[in-house]
Design brief:
about 220 residues, 7 strands, about 15% strand, globular
Length: about 220
């Protein structure tokens, strides 16, 4: 099975750990029709490759789809893929897990993708295709609320991290998790959720926005 991957280095490292028994080839656009599986882990930051994926009838294409909804991108292109195209929660820290969160455009793609990924040792949990999926939406919203708490002077970052780990048995505190995921991914996921829903729950904390903007000049 010929498997190709593209994405950020930390994402690729996680995927290699998840399927260590299978070699991953660097993505080459001129060889796109020779791959059996393509993992495009930072697709939701760079979706320009999508048109070339649509005609790959014998290929499973797994794209990162936390910050965008697959149906929305396909609607803009005005076509449905011949490939089996599914979305995946590919944010850093969420790839190398016992269950990988995915979404599909239809039940046939879900069935095909589940079977193929299981051959690689990847167990999946399919959720509705929506911006934020499920786990990223929850975790990023918790991080955003933690920023509000610090901004209001209610507690320090260290106290919040410790309280979440001891009080709720979370594996990481919100600020620890934010650092590992990347403040850019956290901010952009919440912003995408707010633009998609206009729900006040997803309004970005000004302190989080400031630190996100400062990260570009760090």
């Amino acid at each position: 099975m010929k498997i190709s991957v593209k994405g950020q280095p930390n994402q690729i490292t996680e995927l290699r750990s998840l399927i260590s028994d299978h070699p991953l080839l660097p993505f080459k656009g001129n060889e796109i029709d020779t791959y059996d599986i393509i993992f495009d882990l930072d697709f939701d930051d760079n979706p320009d490759q999508l048109p070339s994926y649509l005609s790959l009838s014998d290929t499973l294409v797994v794209v990162g789809s936390v910050k965008l909804q697959l149906e929305e991108i396909l609607a803009e292109l005005g076509g449905l893929p011949s490939s089996t195209l599914i979305g995946m929660n590919s944010l850093p820290t969420f790839i190398n897990r016992s269950l990988v969160e995915c979404c599909a455009l239809n039940s046939d793609d879900e069935i095909k993708a589940k079977a193929t990924l299981k051959e690689l040792g990847i167990e999946t949990r399919f959720v509705a295709s929506r911006v934020g999926l499920v786990t990223p939406r929850i975790v990023c919203m918790i991080i955003n609320e933690a920023y509000y708490t610090v901004q209001e002077g209610t507690a320090s970052r260290e106290d919040i991290d410790l309280g979440m780990k001891l009080g709720t048995a979370y594996p990481k505190g919100p600020f620890e998790w934010c650092k590992e995921i990347g403040i850019d991914h956290v901010y952009e996921t919440i912003e995408a959720l707010y633009q998609d829903t206009k729900d006040e729950r997803y309004k970005i904390c000004p302190l989080l926005k400031t630190e996100y903007l400062q990260s570009f000049s760090a």
